[in-house]
Known about the structure:
The structure holds two protein chains of two kinds. Chain A is mostly helical. Chain A has ten helices and no strands. By secondary structure, chain B is mainly alpha-helical. Chain B has two domains: 1-114, RNA polymerase sigma factor, region 2, helix turn helix motif (Rna Polymerase Sigma Factor, Chain: A, Orthogonal Bundle), CATH 1.10.1740; 132-205, Arc Repressor Mutant, subunit A. Chain B is 71% helix and 0% strand. Chain B is built from ten helices and no strands. Chain B has helices at 2-14, 21-34, 38-59, 63-79, 89-110, 117-120, 134-153, 156-167, 172-179, 183-200. Chain A binds chain B through residues 14-15, 18-19, 21-22, 24, 46, 48-50, 52-54, 56-71, 73, 75-76, 79, 82-83, 86, and chain B through 38, 41-42, 45-46, 49-50, 52-54, 57-58, 63-64, 67, 70-71, 74-75, 78-80, 118, 124, 126-128, 140-141, 143-144, 147-148, 151, 162-163, 165-167, 172, 187, 190-192, 194-195, 197-198, 201, 205, 208-209.
Amino acid sequence: MHSNSTTPHAAHDELLLARLYGGDVDERDRARALDLVATCEECAGLFADLGAIATATAAMAVPPRPRGFTLSEADAARLRRRSDGGSLHGLFGWRRALGGSMAAIGLAGMVALGAVSALGTGSAMAPQSDRGALTVAAQAAPTAASAYLPGTLTAAPEVNGGGTKQGGATAATGPSGSPLAPPDSTTAPVASQAAGSSAASSATDGTALDGSLNGPTGPTADGHDAGSPAPASSDDSFSSKSTGGGSNSGGPDAWTIALAGSLGLLALGLLLLAAPRLAARRARR
Amino acid sequence: MADGRVVIEAQRAEIRHPDDAGQGIDLAMIEQALRGELDAFNQLVVRHQDHLFALVYRLVPDRDQAADVVQEAFFSAYRNLGAFRGGSVKSWLGRIAVNEAMDLQRSRRRRPSQPYPELEDESWQPPAEQTVEPESRTLAAERSRALAGALAALPFDQRNCIVLFDVEGYDYGEIARIMGVSVGTVKSRIHRGRVALRASLEPVRELFRG
C-alpha cells in the first residue's frame, strides 16, 4: 500500500471517500479509501465533514408548520367523490389515447388534403402554352358546361386559342365547392387553359366558356342566362360533374369524403380528449 | 378494502413489542377510517403531521409550499386508504409525501422560485429547546441556515436522496423504489450530493466542526 502523503489532495478521489462514508465500497476500495484518510490530512478532514454534515442534516431545525392538516367534512366528501371516480380513470386514460390518435390522424388528413389542394391549384396556374392541357380541358369543358346549358350546346366546342378571359363569373369553389378548383377562372383563362385535372372544375361555370363554344346560348334551366355571370352553385356544378364529368368525376367525391372524414376524426378526437377534463371539473364542483 | 383489513389484522397480530404500540395505533386508526370515520383519520394526521412537514420542508425549500405538499399528501392518503397494504403507516405516509414533493419539484423546475425565503429573514430563528445555551442555539441556527441554503442549491434528485437516507433512514433499495430509479443511481446521487454539499459548505465548515 503506497502512501498518499506525497500526492496532492486534488488528485485524490473524493467520491471514493463519500462511498466509504455511505458503506458502498468493496474490500479493495475500502482499503484505498482508508489509506487516503490515514495519509492525507485533507481527505481525513473531508471524511469527517461528510459525517458532520449528515448529522447536521438530520438535526436541521425546521420552522413550525404554518397550519394543521386535518381534513374537514367537506374535504372528505370531495375526496370520496374523487376516489369513487377513480375507477373511471382507466377508461378516461383509454379515451385520452384514442382521442389523441384520432385528432392526430384527422389533423394529418386535413394537412395532406390541404397540400393536395395547393398542388391542384398550382397546376391550374400552369402556363398557357401548355397545349396538351388545353386540349384535355377543352374536351372536358363542354360536358360540364352542358349542365348549365341544357339543350343549347349542340356543336362541339373549340378551344379559344387566345385563351383570354371570357365571362366574369368565378369558379372559386369549383365543382363540389372544394378548393381543388382554381380560385378564379379569370386567372386560369377559362377551363380551357387549365391543366387536365382541374379543367373540368373551371368549366362548371358555363360563362367561362362562352367565347369558346359555337352555338347559341340561352337561359339555363334554372333561369340563369348562360351568357351572363352565373352564380357558382356548387350543388348544380357538383351534380353536373358527378353525372357527366367524364374520367375524373370521382376526384371531388373522394376529396370531399376524405375532408369530411378528417374533420370528423378531428372533432371526435378533440371531444374524447376534452371528456376527462369536463368530468374532472364536474367532480370538483 | 376487505384485503386491506386482512392485511391490517395480520400486521396487528405481528405487533408484540411495546415499541410497536404507535404502529398498532396507526393501524387501528386506518381500520376505523376505512369504515368511514373521519375523526380516526384526523387522529392519524395529528400524529404524523409534524414529522411529514419536517421531512417535506427539507425537500421543498419553501415553508408554504411544503405545507401545501403535506396537505396534498394527506388528501392522497385519504383517497387511497383502501390501497394501504400494511407495513409501517409512517413509511407509507412518508412515501406519499415524498412523491407529492417530487411532483412539486418537477413543476418548480419549470418555474423556479426563491428557496427557503424565511431563511433570508434574519428575524426568523429555528425553534430550540429552552434549556440549550444561547450560544449553542445561535450556532445551531447558523448551521441550519447554512445547511438549508446548501441543500437548496443541490439538484433536487440529489437532495431527495440525501434527505431520505440521512434523515428518514431509508436504505438505498427503498429510496430507489420511492424514486423509481436504480439502486446504482441512488448511490451515485447520494455520494455526489455529499461531496457537492461539503464543497458548498467549505467557507463555513467551522460551523460543523467540534
